[in-house]
Design goal:
With about 240 residues, the chain is mostly helical. The protein has eleven helices and six strands. The strands form two sheets. A three-stranded antiparallel beta sheet has the order 2-1-6. Helix 2 packs antiparallel against helix 5, helix 4 packs across helix 8 and helix 5 runs antiparallel to helix 6. The relative contact order is 0.13. The model has no long low-confidence stretch (mean pLDDT about 85).
């Protein structure tokens, strides 16, 4: 689509002709039916990404810290999933709310599996379900008012996921019991994060040289609750607070 600057409809027709028809002779009606099924499959996939992988109430917000914009996805990155008291406190303090009904999630997953079977798509429905079930309960644990059910589910899912897939994903999941108060990280998030690109007077104070040593000490104490990838795959904490 990007290489040849083709529209979505043309790309779907090309994909269907090359990978799904495979020389089969189809009537116009059957071809249109299969294309509609393929579009529906992709729409469902997009819906799950936007509502299960992303915490939608947080992702749409424009937030900045020091020199950079806060990414819309914090708790999940490549093959890492982070559910910690610190992460919950930060997301909750910035307006993250749990919204998606579990039954809606399950219906979307089921419909994708049925469509994939009908279209003979190379789709690993079991892995997709297992991974996004983790994402679903991670979102609930991080953003719901009462996350007890999600915490209990995550504890079980973490074990079964590792048994099935080994170390394919880095599941950084810590008990949320004591961290539910989260007053210090919540206060820090409200102070450090801003909604506008430009610097505030407060930022010039918060990121002044005398404050950097304090931040370094605090971050060292909370390192286990930070995403494990943060210093190796993104801007490091040291670079962020300079």
């Amino acid at each position: 689509m990007f290489r040849y600057d083709e529209g979505i409809k043309k790309c779907l027709k090309g994909f269907h002709r090359r990978y799904l028809r495979k020389g089969r002779k189809l009537s116009r009606e059957d071809r249109q039916k299969e294309l509609a099924g393929l579009r529906r499959f992709l729409k469902l996939s997009e819906y799950l990404v936007l509502n299960v992988l992303y915490i939608r109430s947080f992702a749409h917000r424009r937030l900045y810290v020091h020199k950079m914009r806060v990414p819309p996805l914090l708790h999940a990155f490549w093959n890492t999933l982070t559910v910690t008291p610190f992460m919950r406190a930060v997301l909750r303090s910035m307006g993250a709310e749990f919204e998606l009904d579990y039954r809606v999630f399950l219906r979307a997953m089921k419909e994708m599996r049925i469509l994939a079977n009908e279209l003979s798509l190379p789709y690993d429905a079991a892995f997709h379900r297992d991974l996004f079930t983790l994402y679903y309960f991670a979102q609930e644990a991080l953003s719901a008012e009462l996350p007890r059910r999600a915490i209990e589910s995550l504890e079980r899912l973490q074990i079964s996921f590792r048994e099935r897939y080994g170390d394919l994903y880095d599941l950084q999941i810590l008990p949320l019991g004591r961290g539910l108060r989260g007053l210090l990280p919540a206060l820090a998030a409200r102070l450090l994060l801003r909604r506008h690109r430009g610097y505030r007077i407060l930022d010039r104070i918060l990121f002044s040289s005398p404050m950097l040593s304090l931040y370094a000490a605090v971050l060292n104490r909370t390192a286990k609750q930070m995403p494990s990838f943060i210093n190796s795959r993104a801007m490091s904490i040291e670079e962020l607070i300079r």
